[in-house]
Design goal:
There is one protein chain. The chain is an alpha+beta fold. The chain has one domain. The chain contains three helices and six strands, in the order ββαβββαβα. The strands form two sheets. Strands 3, 4, 5 and 6 form a four-stranded mixed β-sheet that branches. A two-stranded antiparallel ribbon has the order 1-2. Strand 1 and strand 2 form a beta hairpin. The longest helix is centred in the N-terminal third of the chain and has 13 residues. It starts with a strand and ends with a helix.
């Protein structure tokens, strides 16, 4: 499931779709492990393909959420996760123009009100 996410000035995650927010909330309350990935596009061109289309540099951040605890993923862990075929588990080369970055601590709504 894809959605747009943003961080507000307090570091709280804000989602663009109420259905996605409810779905994530249900998973968190069930204790299900959830991975959250943020793709941040820049206006810098990574490369131009043979048809002349520009591909922008993308920064990738990740978090694991389990039992209501948010755990930021390091750049190395994000690289390892992003460079594996999900069907076979085999390593795949990284996509050009993608930079895997260290994630930062997130504050979930329930944590902020505690």
């Amino acid at each position: 499931m894809n959605t747009v996410a943003a961080l507000d000035h307090r570091g709280e995650l804000v989602l663009d779709t109420p259905e996605v927010e409810r779905f994530l909330d249900e998973l968190l309350h069930e204790g299900t492990m959830v991975s959250l990935v943020l793709y941040s596009l820049t206006d810098e061109v990574a490369f131009t393909d043979s048809q002349g289309s520009d591909f922008l540099i993308k920064h990738v951040y990740g978090w694991f959420i389990e039992d209501g605890t948010v755990m930021p993923v390091s750049a190395a862990e994000a690289f390892d996760i992003g460079c594996v075929d999900p069907d076979t588990g085999e390593p795949v080369p990284p996509e050009p123009g993608i930079y895997y970055e260290d994630a930062w601590p997130l504050i979930l709504q329930d944590e902020a009100s505690s």
